[in-house]
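Recall the central idea of this unit: under ordinary conditions, the amino acid sequence of a chain determines the structure it adopts. In this exercise we apply that idea directly, starting from the sequence alone.
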Amino acid sequence: MINATGSLGGLVGSYAVGWLKDVTGSFTAGLIGMASMLCLANVLTVVLSLMVKQKA
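Accordingly, the structure predicted from this sequence is:
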């Protein structure tokens, strides 16, 4: 499951960066999009770990 999610993220992320570069003409938007997804993943990880600790 983890490997499948990583592979899917690699595929979708590449297309997203390319699409954003085509739309804006710069890689900046693609990099900002990838950075925002990284920040979202970090927030979700912290929230889920806190939820699991509360149940234990």
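The first helix runs from residue 2 to 24.
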